[in-house]
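Narrative summary of target 7.
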Amino acid sequence: MSVAEETHTKSRPRRDLILKERGLLSLLVAAAIGFAVSIYLTVVHYSGASLVCSTTSVINCQAVTTSAYSVLFGTSIPVSAAGIVWFLVSGELAAVGLLKAYRSQAEPGWLRPVQLFWGLGGLIFVLYLVYAEIVLVHRICEWCTLVHLLTLFSFMVALGRLASRKR
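Modeled conformation, tokenized:
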């Protein structure tokens, strides 16, 4: 076998893994992006720095992230800190599945239901945050919207993964 053939043969399992586990990879990428945005929002919260976003009219990150609804109930902890934890756990769950697939081991039976319920919990919290933004604060935060969309995406992928297992 030539070096080129050997390299092609070694890279093929990785490519097959990527195609087969695109749901898990999507969850991992969404978690990484959400984790980074949540860290950014948390750092800005504690440092008092200005966000890189619009502060005019309805789109106003500063108004949203400094409102009474930007902290966890009755604390001074920003909701973005909960986002850090949520996306970290989401990423870890995806990594468990990817590691099992990489090792050609069966995915744990608990993984897909846990991902779905974790996604549902995040989605319920996001719906509350969207309500707070639109109805109570009357402003929308671009960064928050990105986190909300990533959470919805993660829930939808987890739902699809669970449904595909049932077939």
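Strands lie at 55-56, 59-60.
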